[in-house]
Amino acid sequence: MDLGLRHLKVVVTVAEAGSISRAAAALSIAQPGLTAQIKRIEQDLGGPLFERRPEGVVPTELGTHFVLRARDLLAQFDDLLASTRALGCEATPASSILIGASGGGNWLPRVTGIVADLLPDHEQFVYVEEQQHRLLASLRAGKLDLGLITEYPYLPTPRLTGLAGLDLGKEPLLIGLPDRHPLAGRDLVSLRELAEEAWVVPAGRSEELRLSLRLACERTGFSPRFRHFGVDHTTAADIIRGGRAIGAFLAHDVPAAGLTLARLVDGQLWRRTRLVWPLNSPIAAVAKELTSRTGTAMASVG
Description:
Helix content is 41%, strand content 23%. It is α/β, with parallel strands linked by helices. Helix 1 (5-17) packs across helix 2, helix 1 (5-17) packs across helix 4 and helix 5 runs antiparallel to helix 9 (287-301). The longest helix has 29 residues, at 61-89. The radius of gyration is 22 Å and the shape is globular.
């Protein structure tokens, strides 16, 4: 079975409706046909996506994972259509700087501010592209002038062939614990000590962070028990404060009130941020000053 966007929409609609009958009505298809379609999708994926109950259906753990990623893909597809139509109708000024980002957190506003100072006659356009390989392809094709990319441990390092780059450094990932957690009084904890904990899945579209966390835990000898999905940083912090889970954060992602943020022994989890640009980009002419200015910014937050 070749799964496509329409199958993603079917699964998401069932999850949101909470019942096959309501989802069938929303999709304008017969209930038996929808049931058969869900079964074929489950067979293709190798496991049940929904648990059938008298009051309706609820996603299994596999189903929760699929629904979260499917929503993300459907949203990205809608954004692709909208942004492509907008770009097709609007010409980009000749003296412009096109900046793309696949992450970078609080680095993005800093970098755009520095570039605005260095190239004041160039109008800025900023695009967020969650798929890093697409961002790099756009840079190599000359469709973007500057990119902000991220790396995580245990994942393949992005190939930067044909691009110049600047390493903005590594930020440690911190473990958020409830204040009353037995480990909350310590500055350093090990992943092994967290093997029995429930985790809040890293917020947003941080699939690389989630995979990096899983691989780090598996190298330590256990699989993380992801139990809370699709929440933003504020909600994640609230869940952790309530004592129901722990989570991984960058220092600037979460307010500290009511939480203890502990570092991991040996710095097992981190995020590296890089600036990259094509060799013929306008950025190349100010690369030395950009390096100096970003170095100053790094020192101010170090």
